Prior knowledge:
It holds the Pfam family Methylase_S. GO terms for molecular function: endonuclease activity; hydrolase activity. Keywords: Coiled coil, DNA-binding, Endonuclease, Hydrolase, Nuclease, Restriction system. It is an enzyme of class 3 (hydrolase). There is one protein chain. The protein has ten helices and 28 strands. The chain has 434 residues and is α+β, with helices and mostly antiparallel strands. It folds into three domains: 11-172, DNA methylase specificity domains (Adenine-n6-DNA-methyltransferase TaqI, Chain A, domain 2); 175-240 and 387-434, Bipartite methylase S protein (Helix Hairpins, Orthogonal Bundle), CATH 1.10.287; 242-383, DNA methylase specificity domains (Adenine-n6-DNA-methyltransferase TaqI, Chain A, domain 2, Alpha-Beta Complex), CATH 3.90.220.20. Strand 16 and strand 17 form a beta hairpin. Helix 5 packs antiparallel against helix 10 (386-426). The model has no long low-confidence stretch (mean pLDDT 92).
Amino acid sequence: MGELIDIPAGYKKSKVGLIPTDWNIFRLSGILASAKLGGNYENSVSDYGLPLIKMGNILRGKVSIESLQYIPVGSEHHENDFLKEGDLLFNTRNTLELVGKVAIWRSELPKALYNSNLLRLEFDKNHVHSNYFMNYVMNSDYAISQLRRFATGTTSVAAIYSRDLNKLNVTLPSLPEQNKITKILSAWDKAITDNQLLLSEYITNRKGLEQQLLSGQIRFKDHVISNDKIKTKVGILPKNWELKSITEIVDRVKEKLNPEPETLYREIGIRSHCKGIFHKEEVTGESLGNKSVFWIQPDCFVVNIVFAWEHAIAKTTEAEVGMIASHRFPLYKPKADILDLDYLLYYFKTARGKHLLGLASPGGAGRNKTLGQTEFAKLKIPVPSLQEQKRIVSVLSESDKEIELLKQNITTLTEQKKGLMQKLLTGEIRVKVD
């Protein structure tokens, strides 16, 4: 026998758990007015023309207009195939993890078509207040879990067919309550979107500030000796800045290790795209074989020579003390009174810094494009006084903190909205209807 549970007053058991007694469960087939596949435009895509929304553009709840494809303006299509405000799109094909995503079209573009992997859903107005409400319903936890069970195929290619989509169970309150729930969740969406727009603005401003500070276009008054400029290979710089080679501002450090066979060691790795150091699983000295390894020293600039061109750079900290690295991860310690480590890291995080790393990494793509350490040592970067370097680092660091706080705020709002959505769409939290 199943475990007995107390059913609160005003609630009833259902296929999706406890729901209010005045709510009803429907199969999607019972509330769908129409489901229309997009056009088959795959053989006529172009680099310009009418934008085409594809399965990769469907995120949970919203449509992304990044990485668009287009069909030529003269291509055959029906006027009814254009998306309109509030259309709900269902992703019928994708990977097993991504198939079944649902998103609302908010007129992100003046005109757009959608392809044959997407279904445009319309609902019976007698049961469903709006597509906006159904966008939340079909992105709820209980809907997603059902849709994943409906998916057939492999991990890389999966599909959800209309016959299975029609079996989706959804819970619906009254039309006025649906409207109120939609307004509440839309307010949270707006707060998240506003913060995302603010974050985008911060990041854009941060990039401009970084470029100006690291080229001397913006200066601190107490560090300006004169307004004279000099022309260099990297552009116009303040006259009291110097263009120095890497070998002039850092020392290569290398403390060789002879591993003990039974001793455990932990190696580091570096993520590409400036995403920092990660720590690998411990291994025995014996398993290292003949690999040449070195002790990590803190407060050093470190680079993965295989993926330097892909911005695999970082700085070591006390957290890496006692760990090791192979010869692929050379360490460079800033020379005292000449260079601030964070200034060096900030410089190489820029587009200009990445370009220099690419220049010092000859060869083809991937593992054939290895950083030449002799070429790296010859690279030259602009070097202001140590005090001005620290001021630059301080300003950029504060800007980074503001961006990180915004990102955390967006994450918090998103998690809060997800929890609220789950409770509103199951009736755990009820809303007062006027």
